[in-house]
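Sequence, please.
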């Protein structure tokens, strides 16, 4: 009788291994980025704080999520026009665009590389991380982003990513005014809010 149970357990294990081998190697989902996606940059000077925003996304881009057995890849590239940055202050807007070399390098590029996990989409935001390459002013940095991922009642996927960077990360010098009396601090907080729909 004991040999019978050993045989049955062995057959069940073999069946499970066979089913795992026949399981799909990967699943692919594509998300189209909506035009009402946005990007904000928050910073500060020795006198006050400031916030600048790109209020819309004017390209037809798609991000792809590929789920393998042991990894989740989020791939695709966003390119945002720095010349549309608005700081709600003409002087601040002009200075930031000049500092970021918007005339020479008009696009801020974000190339997505992976995700730490793929949570079930729901209305309660899930926290996860992922690596991206940020291209700005002729320099490139690979950084880890913290995301909040959720879906609303209209099945719009919301991906909110946040990362602190510095001007020095991209070989830039923070702007100053009035012979150094007003100095911009090094740290900037970049937050982008992507609104996407599943396609394909």
């Amino acid at each position: 009788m004991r040999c019978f149970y050993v045989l049955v357990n062995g057959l069940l294990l073999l069946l499970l291994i066979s089913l795992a081998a026949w399981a799909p190697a990967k699943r692919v989902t594509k998300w189209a980025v909506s035009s009402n996606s946005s990007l904000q940059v928050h910073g500060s000077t020795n006198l006050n704080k400031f916030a600048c925003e790109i209020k819309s996304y004017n390209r037809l881009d798609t991000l792809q999520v590929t789920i393998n057995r042991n990894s989740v890849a989020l791939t695709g590239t966003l390119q945002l026009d720095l010349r549309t940055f608005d700081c709600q202050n003409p002087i601040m807007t002009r200075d930031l665009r000049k500092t970021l070399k918007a005339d020479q390098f008009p696009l801020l590029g974000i190339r997505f590389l992976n995700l730490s996990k793929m949570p079930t989409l729901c209305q309660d935001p899930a926290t996860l991380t992922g690596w991206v390459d940020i291209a700005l002013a002729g320099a490139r940095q690979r950084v880890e982003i913290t995301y909040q991922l959720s879906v609303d009642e209209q099945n719009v996927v919301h991906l909110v990513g946040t990362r602190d960077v510095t001007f020095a990360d991209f070989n830039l010098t923070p702007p100053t005014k009035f012979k150094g009396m007003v100095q911009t601090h090094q740290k900037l907080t970049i937050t982008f809010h992507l609104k996407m729909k599943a396609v394909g």
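The radius of gyration is 23 Å.
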